[in-house]
Design brief:
four-stranded mixed sheet, alpha+beta, extended
Length: about 220
């Protein structure tokens, strides 16, 4: 009887754990959906700008480590609402490869679905009123890293160059160390300024929902 009682108690505990796990997953999914929607709308962003105000969005990508590995990979894409494309800049390959293309395809299908659910076409003058099932993926010819560790540096520099309307081929592996030092110096200087001035980073600003069209703070290239 004692043994049967222990087995029954164990089964009850396992059942409670399964129920708790299921509820937690449901809450996390609901929370994630809300966060994604608020991000697109321009809520919970420090800049307080909705996607409705933008023609193009810069999207950093991160590939998860393979099973048994710790390394990861960073690259980035430019989401164009008008052309319905995602232009991918990847320092590991100027042609698509399986892991990366499958990763980007998720966003190419997910983002249009999200925009449709949020009636995005009514608020973004670039997107238009004709939703698409998926965005086209364009793999761009970009400078390639010469090692296995500088993908993040290349992704950041690509973003910097494209924001300044410069050619990504203005950067190559020989300049990576200089750019790393520049990033480190800027981060250190900013941290010291915050400490000396007593400045505290403000909490995330609450942007407004879809309203009148407004220009973005960043001057996107044509």
């Amino acid at each position: 009887k004692k043994r049967n009682g222990r087995i029954k108690k164990k089964e009850q505990n396992q059942k409670r754990k399964r129920i708790f796990k299921q509820r937690l997953e449901e809450e996390l999914e609901e929370s994630t959906n809300e966060k994604v929607a608020n991000y697109v709308k321009g809520l919970d962003l420090s800049c307080g700008i909705s996607w409705a105000s933008a023609k193009k969005i810069f999207c950093p990508f991160r590939l998860k480590p393979r099973t048994g590995q710790k390394s990861t990979h960073y690259f980035f894409g430019i989401l164009d609402f008008e052309d319905k494309t995602i232009s991918v800049h990847d320092s590991m390959g100027s042609v698509p490869y399986d892991r990366a293309i499958e990763h980007v395809r998720i966003y190419a299908r997910l983002i249009p679905h999200c925009l449709k659910c949020l009636n995005f076409g009514e608020h973004n003058k670039y997107n238009g009123q004709s939703p698409v099932e998926k965005f086209n993926i364009m793999w761009m010819n970009t400078p390639q890293q010469a090692n296995s560790v500088d993908c993040g540096i290349f992704a950041l520099k690509y973003i910097d160059l494209r924001l300044n309307r410069e050619d990504v081929f203005n950067f190559d592996q020989s300049q990576s160390l200089t750019f790393k030092r520049e990033l480190a110096a800027n981060l250190w200087a900013h941290g010291k300024w915050k400490k000396d001035s007593g400045y505290e980073t403000p909490k995330e600003q609450q942007g407004h929902d879809y309203g009148d069209f407004e220009e973005t703070l960043c001057e996107f290239f044509d």
